[in-house]
Amino acid sequence: MSAASWVSLQEAAGPVSRETFERLVAFETVFQKWNRRINLAAQSTQDDVWRRHILDSAQLARIRPEAKRWVDLGSGGGFPGLVLAFLLAERDGASIDLVESNRKKASFLQAVVGQFNLPARVVARRIDDAYPLVSTPQIVTARALAPLSTLLDLSAPWLTAGACGLFHKGRDYRAEVAESAQRWSFDLVEHASATDAHGVILELSDLRQLT
Q1: What is the pLDDT of residue 43?
Q2: Would you tell me the crossing angle of helices 18-38 and 3-13 to the nearest 10 degrees?
Q3: Is 31 flagged in the annotation as binding?
Q4: Distance CA 122, CA 35 (A)
């Protein structure tokens, strides 16, 4: 990978050490190998994993640099959860739980966590079975998992207890926000995506169900 790739990572995620950059480059190679076997991500993105997946995931670290307890729902191929784990390794005491019910994908996540000694724990359960297993997170993430209204239902046990949600969304996010606002009250900050001209990161907090 070129020096420009390291610069792009720092532009997306904030200050990142050369060691972490090199570890993420190595992770990309591991991901590509597994993806050919068990289809972790769309083949149409195979040639642009660095920008489409790694940088897209890494930008969450810039939004909440102080947070140390994270949980990623439906981690799948490790985006954003594994990428965040690499970045959280630079934060003393930080960790992330990766919730993934698919056995093959959970095996991939566990293999990467072990190979790179990441501050992450794989919770190989359905999300609604993971609540008692996940320590109180400060941040809940999910990418390409479900509409916002469903994400709020799934993450409500944590978000109503004070956690903040960071959710990747595409060009139709406003309709999802409007639909969610019919059932939930929340504070919302929209962050323009660093990798997708039509995408946003929704920072959602103070979730309360409407009566």
Answers
A1: 64
A2: 90
A3: no
A4: 18
